[in-house]
Specification:
Odorant receptor. This is Olfactory receptor. Its main location: membrane. This protein has 317 residues and is mainly α. It has 11 helices and 3 strands. The chain has a 3-stranded mixed sheet with strand order 2-1-3. It is globular, with a radius of gyration of 22 Å.
């Protein structure tokens, strides 16, 4: 990364040049960010406090919520501040850090969703061996692999992107330091190396996607053979939330990657980016808590404890 650009920073254009539209989107972002913050913290708290949620599935769910918090916090708070202050400037080093953190969280989330699909496969297709296969060691190694893959992807992506020279206007038509938008500022074909890294990471993501697809084919094949309707419903209730998250995250990001990018992005282009950068962290807690009976019971217990505690405090004064 020796050949840094001489640019001291970039201008993030955001959604619109009109202040009133910027404020509108900033307000929407703020609402979604609060929803993501509260929802994911609730899941982390619930899975940590309730001993009935100590299985590997909830262990990985807790870390998915933590990843979601990091993922949405990388881009949204800065975008909200820029919109309210009407200032889209971001320094070079802030852009580098944002690019690294965003890639790390995105790739780590993809890896974690793959690990979670394997956990569901073992639980449903190999139930008698579940506790042996998904022991503490396996969970720890799986989580370690998730973070290592995310860090490596972040380093490779960021190093390849910011080793090129940028020239011309330092304007990024996005609400964060998006790599495809940065590559448009390249002076020559120096971005070939970055395209190679992107191709490699895309291949890895495709392998994860195929792995999840094959895993769920086995899962649904096994579930449909279960004679008890209640058992089938219980199995589906633990699988469908995870599958919903996978479809939302992968489909929107892949579609945005494959579609042709115009020189002047439209509002629809920005909204598509929102679908895989902002919505998954905000919707994941809702999907998991509403579709999962054990989570709903655990959440109810926590709120009842809080209610009893507040009632006790009010009667002691």
């Amino acid at each position: 990364m020796a050949n840094f650009t001489t640019m001291s920073g970039f201008i993030l254009m955001g959604f619109s040049g009109k202040p009133e539209i910027e404020i509108l989107f900033a307000t929407l972002f703020l609402v979604l960010y609060i929803v993501a913050l509260v929802g994911n913290i609730l899941i982390i708290t619930t899975t940590s406090m309730d001993h009935s949620l100590s299985s590997p599935m909830y262990f990985f769910l807790k870390h998915l919520s933590f990843l979601d918090l990091c993922y949405i916090s990388v881009t949204v708070p800065r975008s909200i501040c820029n919109s309210f202050m009407h200032n889209g400037y971001i320094s070079l080093w802030e852009c580098i850090l944002q690019c690294f953190a965003f890639t790390l969280c995105g790739c780590a989330e993809m890896a974690l969703l793959t690990v979670m699909s394997y956990d569901r496969y073992v639980a449903i297709c190999l139930p008698l061996r579940y506790e042996v296969i998904m022991d503490i060691s396996t969970c720890a190694h799986g989580l370690l692999a998730v973070w290592v893959s995310g860090i490596l992807a972040g380093v490779m992506h960021t190093a390849a992107t910011f080793s090129i020279h940028f020239c011309g206007a330092n304007i990024i038509h996005q609400f964060f330091c998006d790599v495809p938008q940065l590559l448009k500022l390249s002076c020559s074909n120096e971005y070939v190396g970055e395209l190679g890294v992107s191709g490699f990471l895309s291949l890895v993501a495709f392998v994860c996607f195929i792995s999840i697809g094959v895993t769920y084919m086995h899962i649904f094949s096994t579930v449909l053979r279960i004679p008890s309707a209640e058992s089938r419903a219980r199995a589906f209730s633990t699988c469908l939330p995870h599958l919903s998250v996978v479809i939302l995250f992968i489909s929107t990001s892949v579609f945005d990657f494959l579609k042709p990018h115009s020189e002047s992005p439209t509002v629809s282009d920005f909204l598509l980016t929102v679908f895989y950068t902002v919505l998954p962290p905000a919707l994941n807690p809702i999907i998991y808590s509403l579709r999962n009976k054990a989570m709903k019971i655990a959440l109810k217990k926590i709120f009842e404890r809080r209610k009893d505690f507040l009632f006790f405090l009010s009667h002691t004064h």
